[in-house]
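call fold(seq) -> tokens
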Amino acid sequence: MRIEGLLLAAGAGRRRGLPKALVPGALTGAIEALTAGGCDRVTVVLGAAADRARPLVPAGVGVVKTADWADGMSASLRAGLAATTGEVVVVHSVDLPDVGPDVVRRLLAHAGPEALARAVYDGVPGHPVLFGRRHVGPAAASATGDRGARGYLASTTVRAVECGDLASGVDVDLPPAE
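ret:
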């Protein structure tokens, strides 16, 4: 079974003051979480500052540029899912610095072409989200605005995989305090 990691990194990071893909260490850390966690291939979706971010993506990692990144997370998700061909796709977000390979491994314990699972942190749904191939098309079709696939995930049964003992799952949208 081929497992693909999909890293959403197209956002402008307006609250942080820097495009998410340009935050030092963010791309490499999230890519490492996916690869060391068990993904056979990783693709990064870039948007804001894509030309500046592209050199930060390691060799061997695929890149999809989405011109409509400003339309929200759904544009990145649709572009990335369209580029995948694996039986399983693990969708991760670049702004989750404490989500590491152990979270991805735990999620992948539920992998399969029919699977739909997501990491939860102390019961709160988060990322990454695992889509078996049969869920990829419907998830992409349902993605709107900055909500990504939330509508699809709310409309079907999703296995909650508790990972609060491994990470907080909190996204970092603000610059570090000085």
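The chain has a mean pLDDT of 90.
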